[in-house]
Amino acid sequence: MNTVLEVKNLTKFYPEVKAINGVSFSIEKGICFGLLGPNGAGKTTTIEVIEGIVPPTSGEILYRGKSRGARFREEVGIQFQNTELPAFLSVKETLETFRSLYGRKSDMDELIEICYLQEILNHDNRKISGGQKQRLLLAMALANDPELIFLDEPTTGLDPQSRRHLWDIVRNIKAREKTVVLTTHYMEEAQILCDIIAIMDYGKIIAAGPPEKLLEEQCSGTAVILHEHIDEKTLNSIQGNWVRMKDGVEIYPENLNDCIKTLMNLGINLSKMTVRPQNLEDLFLKLTGKRLRA
Ligand SMILES: Nc1ncnc2c1ncn2[C@@H]1O[C@H](COP(=O)(O)OP(=O)(O)OP(=O)(O)O)[C@@H](O)[C@H]1O
Ligand SMILES: [Mg+2]
Q: Which domains does the chain have, with CATH numbers?
């Protein structure tokens, strides 16, 4: 095992809230580690404490088995959740400025290629789109050719195409045997990109492991989605759980065939029914009783 990062019993208490409430995990080299959780779960605080931007209340953080020192600062790349780009600079000038700050640097052409910046190199930072901005921020986080990269919600607010672009970049980074720590609200993203995820809620990790394993162990059934009102008595006659949605109901049956038979026998219209495997969103609901995203 080649452990890059170890976090032990981390806490960060503010007067009003325990933003991190006893978090421990370790991350092996070359993986993508995802912190997943709703707003306010403590994801940003956790990575900012690890990055050394926010002091912890207590706990220990080791980088390659040692306390974080000069080597950590040199070998880490950070993309913050919110970053203002310098005005009056082009994309290329911004990247060159950032690279000049470091002793150790990524190859400029490679950075441009990995982050798909060729077409916007001479654009003014103030005139680039949200997706282009995220790609530039990612290139800036990679300017020092880091071994360990922190990405705080790199795809929030992006359209599906820009999000897929970002996923390609993260895969490219991983293919270079770098280690990535990312936070996200999107369970699909976590399932696609992350080798290991830790689901956070109220400052604690409530489940951790490879996404497929977590699902297999705790949430391996199906979800039946019906876009109509079904009364409680009917729902309770089905073996399993159910939850009301904005415009219908989601049922997590113990036996899918039995559930569908019951619904048919009750004369319920199944023409708009959707059946899908359970996912991380369902796991979160099962663990906390609430949805990951409102
Ligand atoms: N500087 C601060 N002072 C006081 N409370 C803070 C501070 N920073 C964060 N918090 C609180 O700590 C908790 C965790 O916040 P954090 O930003 O880590 O959440 P998050 O999981 O990143 O959420 P989001 O998904 O919205 O980015 C929240 O309740 C937040 O209000
Ligand atoms: Mg955050």
A: 3-216 (3.40.50.300), 221-277 (3.30.70.260)
